[in-house]
Design goal:
About 35% of the residues lie in helices and about 10% in strands. It is α/β, with parallel strands linked by helices. The structure holds zinc ion.
């Protein structure tokens, strides 16, 4: 196996890594969670769905991508009332992931993409991408994989709430590993939804708010998985994978010229933030 065909970061040797750096592959870090996903989905839902999209995109365009081992834990204290959920403090998550992006940048990769599968990590991966750009010579961008599939999902969906263990995630899981979905355990969420706020407004509400889930749901479902199908999941998967391949191509081409300093006199370059 050489760097041309291998798309899993840690399947390369250090000699092959030199090849991958010379090729300037885009390095992808999938992030997710180990978190309750209702009575019908396993705790790996966010990272399994996200990593599956990343690996399939990279399999289709192996000469342009390298996928890092995923981050399977995230900001999750709000789910802690449900057995099994693992919480990582946001400061720890940011520091840990920033150590990864900085290492990747150190080796000479210029483009790093954070692909997230867990809504509550969204603000954190934005911050990691920003800090990576400011603290390294590389470019780092961040997105939720689901954003690449929303347009396609709009056309086929039967429910309105895009949230958690819902029609979207359940459909995608059914497509990828239907045998692990406990179909007979599916229930609709008893969502509390206002005009500006919902019980968890971190996905599609203008006002950001997330309560302890133990306060408003006994099932851990937000949204409605009852209309989920594997066919819908296939549409979601294909849209997300195709979108990621396109995004990586655009990111690869994105110019990275030297910064130009407009100061007339020398700056105090020994000052560090
Ligand atoms: Zn989820």
């Amino acid at each position: 196996m050489d760097a041309q065909k291998e798309y899993r970061y840690n399947h390369l040797t250090w000699e092959e890594m030199n090849q991958a750096i010379a090729m300037q592959k885009v390095v992808i870090l999938p992030t997710g969670s180990t978190e309750q996903h209702g009575p019908h989905l396993p705790l790996d839902t966010d990272i399994f769905l996200c990593e599956s999209v990343c690996l399939e995109a990279a399999r289709r365009a192996p000469d342009t991508m390298l996928v890092l081992p995923p981050i399977s834990y995230g900001l999750n204290m709000h789910h802690i009332d449900f057995p099994g959920t693992i919480h990582i403090e946001p400061e720890v998550f940011v520091a840990f992931c920033l150590n990864i992006t900085k290492s990747v940048s150190y080796h000479g990769f210029k483009k790093i993409l954070l692909v997230n599968g867990h809504g509550s990590n969204g603000i954190l991966i934005d911050l990691i991408a920003r800090k990576t750009v400011l603290e390294t010579p590389s470019l780092c961008a961040a997105l939720g994989y689901f954003s690449l599939a929303l347009k396609a999902f709009e056309k086929i969906k039967d429910t309105n709430t895009l949230a958690h263990a819902d029609e979207f995630e359940t459909s995608l899981y059914m497509h990828l590993a239907g045998e692990r979905v406990r179909m007979d355990r599916r229930v609709a969420g008893n969502d509390v939804e206002g005009k500006f706020l919902s019980s968890d407004s971190t996905s599609n509400y203008p006002v950001r708010f997330s309560d302890y889930w133990g306060r408003w749901t006994k099932t851990g479902v937000h949204g409605d998985p009852m209309t989920a199908t594997a066919e819908k999941g296939k549409v979601i998967f294909e849209a997300a994978v195709a979108g990621l391949v396109q995004l990586v191509e655009e990111f690869r081409q994105w110019p990275l010229p030297k910064r130009s300093d407009q100061h007339a006199s020398p700056v105090q370059s020994d000052i560090r933030w």
